[in-house]
Amino acid sequence: MLTVIDLNSDVGESFGRWRSGDEEILPFVTSVNVACGMHAGDPVHMDEIVGKACDLNLAIGAHPGFPDLQGFGRREMTLSPREIETYVLYQVSALSGFALSHGSHLTHVKPHGALYNMAVIDDKIARAIALGVARAGEHLVLVGLPGSCLLQAADVLGLPAAAEAFADRAYNSDGTLVKRGLPGSIIEDPDEAAKRALDIALRGTIKSIDGKEIPIPARTICVHGDTPGAVEMGRTIRRRLESAGVILRSLKELAGLRK
Amino acid sequence: MLTVIDLNSDVGESFGRWRSGDEEILPFVTSVNVACGMHAGDPVHMDEIVGKACDLNLAIGAHPGFPDLQGFGRREMTLSPREIETYVLYQVSALSGFALSHGSHLTHVKPHGALYNMAVIDDKIARAIALGVARAGEHLVLVGLPGSCLLQAADVLGLPAAAEAFADRAYNSDGTLVKRGLPGSIIEDPDEAAKRALDIALRGTIKSIDGKEIPIPARTICVHGDTPGAVEMGRTIRRRLESAGVILRSLKELAGLRK
Amino acid sequence: MLTVIDLNSDVGESFGRWRSGDEEILPFVTSVNVACGMHAGDPVHMDEIVGKACDLNLAIGAHPGFPDLQGFGRREMTLSPREIETYVLYQVSALSGFALSHGSHLTHVKPHGALYNMAVIDDKIARAIALGVARAGEHLVLVGLPGSCLLQAADVLGLPAAAEAFADRAYNSDGTLVKRGLPGSIIEDPDEAAKRALDIALRGTIKSIDGKEIPIPARTICVHGDTPGAVEMGRTIRRRLESAGVILRSLKELAGLRK
Amino acid sequence: MLTVIDLNSDVGESFGRWRSGDEEILPFVTSVNVACGMHAGDPVHMDEIVGKACDLNLAIGAHPGFPDLQGFGRREMTLSPREIETYVLYQVSALSGFALSHGSHLTHVKPHGALYNMAVIDDKIARAIALGVARAGEHLVLVGLPGSCLLQAADVLGLPAAAEAFADRAYNSDGTLVKRGLPGSIIEDPDEAAKRALDIALRGTIKSIDGKEIPIPARTICVHGDTPGAVEMGRTIRRRLESAGVILRSLKELAGLRK
């Protein structure tokens, strides 16, 4: 059986003097989602990370979030659909300029933080995001949770989409993520995370926090780049997938192949 | 003698609940410079004003400024050349996305406020701006004061450029603007401003504050849209130019025809 | 029967070049709630408005809001109680410095926009606000909707409180405000608003949008200062109250006399 | 000979998810200068650090800066004297509220970054800062470079002041600091820095970068808390000073004893 999957990471989150160190994860992933300045990132760091991602031939995507530097885009905000649509268009377009000037172009868009989470269950928000992305470019792949309103909105608008799974996050048995902060929500052991990545890639399943095996159809696996053990986690997951014969391909190559 | 000139205005400066009212000037100009969110403007208002400018077939340009909402981009900041280059690329690209999604595209870039003024005399800043613009698109026309470092930097990089004159600002006899706040620095009488616009368009000259006639080679004349009498000023200038047989053409049509 | 009431207005909302014009309402009110820089206001304008309020011997209060300049504090944000408590303490303290340096001091605190509305029904938010206010000074009067969680939280912490009514907003029959944007939510006719102010002051009642007379125990009536007809509205309400023998006293004088 | 000196550090610079780790330096200093939210810091972190400083009985001061989170207050901005005065008053007052609510109060104010440097040589800026501090409280000690315009402005306004020296920064022979970024500008060896601290404390001198012994009258020595070796540096300097019989006293105890 041929199994092809993408590994993505959220990067470019450095802001002014604050360094996230997320560029360390680049050698281990095939796609990156770059912060665009509203919740994190700034033009200098966007330029740097896009340049590095180009050198490694990674697929480059935008990672738009709420305009909330202090809360890092992790605090819910009640914006109008029109605000969300235009904020997304703004951020994706800004990043797109950096990609183009490095001789590349954007492949995909993955919302960040609270915006990502709200788009799982809120159809209005999901459609506003998808509309902003569609306006930025009809070829852009929308990345979201399988079964989310966001991926449904991509379908409605005819946008390509990619379902995403998390190797280092615990799942409830309904396929949603165990909320950050709850016990066991984060998998910190690289071996455990790699085992879960293998299950996702090879079998399309993951074991939920209460021990059930649930289906997780995913085209891309997220590896976090901003945690202490991120590099080791990324290296371990990549090695295991490759050892098991899983073929890694970026969203550039996988676009349209949505599971 | 055939005389062709552009009338431009700085617009899109509304921010959240704050409305500049600058969309009132649109019917009287041929090109607009749209704020990009760092010193003024926000994605919702950028989208609105770009849509209106498209309806009127105006040339759309970016109006990037310093990241200083509180100071409206009018306070000097000492940024590194790399910061300036990437901040310009960021802002121009963000606005470009709105223009593209309305089926149009950007024609030009005109720096705002303190950034514009610093680029008149500071070669490092001028080159950083020009580099940011060149990275956003080699076809973009850079708009600046005649004789400024900014227009020289455009030449160095092979960017098209357009020299700009102000019908409603007083000039020193060396061709620089009389600083805002000094007595007589702003021309408030529409008739007087229109007379000056005619001199600029037909004779390429303007009378300085100490009474000398000085050469002002200009391809575009700026009309301010955010002052109380802006609409009356715009209407009067436009009428007089047209009555005198001056042909108004936007920077879309004039690009490359730098005086 | 002796009737004493306060008239308050939200002011100091100017930000950089953006002028709200809300200082025009000062002569018609007895207390002001001054924006503190997070959703609106800046140090220069805070200083100006506090100076003017001192000259008129008005009671000066803080008007803290969410950190959201673009949304003017009118967009809900999900902050932790600790964030809300410290954001309130920060804003109240900053404004307090201006009052003290003008030889005055703060009398009260009234949350702004989405923070105010959320504190009506969310007990955790209400307590976080009250805690922040208590830390800024136990003498500070907390202003809120009658029956709100906010006023209950003031009771729990032993803070003085003042119930507030709106002469220019429609009410549902359960005593809550008809949401902005719904038809009839805003009373624009000064005479109608003045009539309602009289009902509030003299009878402690208001007519709801569906025609019922409901009890509105209020120690202070809010008059908006940032709408086109604000001055006329303020003047009319004040005159009518005074003509009817209602005694106007600021929250400085009324503190502790909660209805 | 009795020698008494203060050790101060800039702290409270964490912002949202970004942690500076500067609270590690607290056990080794006697006074802290706390960021106030404009260039760094946020209400949650201000509250935390002020609480810790109170537990250790440190003198607490404000560390106001330019409103520039992206530039960390290290980029020069051309603000009007009125803006500087009110921005300082705002920041000092905000922090003051946290100190008061922890049962303490502010002792001093030390401007941050570009604002500090500009106040060395620009008299207008220095006076605007001093005026803002005076309005926040006449007892507040203004901390600055010996011979700076800032300390002169303190004199003019009758504010107490404390001259500051840097153990880990190189000096030019005219008593100014060697600019950051130039070779040798930062002393990274704790022993070398401690030796310099001893010279400052015991002899009132320091060796300049070109080998001259120059007078540095200082009441307080700054120890940086945000660099990798900060803790080791702080520990070494403190031990050496104490071993040599230097008495460490905070600015709370030294106020008025300006050298």
Question: Keywords for this structure?
Answer:
homotetramer, 259 residues, alpha/beta, TIM Barrel, 7-stranded parallel β-barrel, two-stranded antiparallel ribbon, 38% helix, 17% strand, globular
Describe this structure in words.
Four copies of one chain form a homotetramer. With 259 residues, chain A is of the alpha/beta class. The first copy, chain A, has one domain: Glycoside hydrolase/deacetylase (TIM Barrel). In chain A, 38% of the residues lie in helices and 17% in strands. Chain A contains eight helices and ten strands. Chain A has a seven-stranded parallel β-barrel, surrounded by four helices. Chain A has a two-stranded antiparallel sheet with strand order 7-8. In chain A, β2, α1 and β3 form a beta-alpha-beta unit. In chain A, α2 runs parallel beside α4 and α6 packs across α7. The longest helix of chain A has 21 residues. Chain A is globular, with a radius of gyration of 17 Å. The two termini of chain A are 15 Å apart. The model of chain A has no long low-confidence stretch (mean pLDDT 94). The interface between A and B is medium-sized, with 23 and 23 residues.
